[in-house]
Amino acid sequence: MARRKPYINVIKENQIRPDHVKGMGDVVFKGFGCLNNECKEYVFIRKDQIKEDFSIVCPACGYILQSGGESVFYDYKLTDIRDGSIIEDGKFIVAHDEYIREAQEYKYCIICATLKPLEFFDRHSARTSGRQGECRLCKTIYNNIKNQTRITDQFREASEKRRLYGFLSGEPTKLDVKAIYKTFESKCFRCGTTLTPPDGNIDHTLPARLLWPLSIGPTLLCSSCNNLKHGKWPSEIYAGNELKRLAVKTGIKYETLTGKAMLNPNAVKWLVENIDYFIEKWIGYPDEIKRIRAVVMTMTGVDIFSGAKSVPQYLKT
Question: Which end of the chain has fewer CB atoms < 10 Å from its terminal CB, N or C?
Fold first, then answer.
């Protein structure tokens, strides 16, 4: 079946984009509290303006954070409780260089125009900031608007494609959903939202597009987090501690979760050995066959068509 041509378009009217956000979609900021104990100001400054020899003045109280500088918070004495002797004394000091280095990074969302932590934006290697222009929340809302207009045969086609990838990955016909909910304590792994069947989504921890079955360490996610995770390798969306917890919950090796995306080697082996049967069974989905061939060739260097007895010319183009 040929790929369906786009039949919808979201027409945006009366969109508001404040002047201070225009052209800021790829500008990253550092955000941090003023180190003056009497000041409540939270300071934001462009990351590209923080030089090695920096001097940052708090706009509220005038306190200065500068390279080589430090702030003292108290004097201390380390004592031996056995005899009361002083082992060491000194000052509790926060170095300004370290404070700025570890400060949270932020970026403006080009839709809601708010400054949000950088991890609230999906990765996008082609952009200067390495993140998409719109935050995950705005992207999810936008996608939901488009998905509401999908017609019946599109849902049927999507279901067939899921069946194709399930077939390739060796997906079992049934999953123990109750056991999955129990493993994740009926909470979304990513945001912690409490879930009760059928509210939760059982996510392919290792993506189906890379021919991994859902049965290998599935993750319980809410709808919003499932949309954000869709098709991504775990290391593309989860942070270090999250990946450690995920390894424990799913039983998938930590080095697999933190490593680069990889194809299911068993599925690739089956494809190479049964390519004629695969083409005949799924010939109604030529775009998917071509996509799978391209992915396998790009990631492994193997051309699944090389051992085929007969391949229609339109699958090769």
Answer: C
Residue 15 is assigned to a structural domain of this protein: no
- Are 107 and 119 in contact by the 8 Å Cβ rule? The answer is no
Angle separating helix axes 286-300 and 152-169, nearest 10 degrees:
40
Nearest CA among 232, 173, 214, 208 for reference residue 288:
208
pTM for the whole structure: 0.55
* Number of structural domains the chain divides into: 3
Give the domain CATH number at 225.
1.10.30
Provide the domain limits for residue 208: 152-258
Could you report the per-residue pLDDT of 129-152, keeping only the tens digit for each? 989 999 988 888 887 777 666 666
182 — phi, psi (to 5°)?
-65, -45
* pLDDT digits 0-9 by tens, 242-287: 999 999 999 999 999 999 999 999 999 999 999 999 999 999 999 9
Residue-averaged pLDDT of the chain: 90
Is residue 202 classed as helix, strand or coil in its secondary structure? Answer: strand
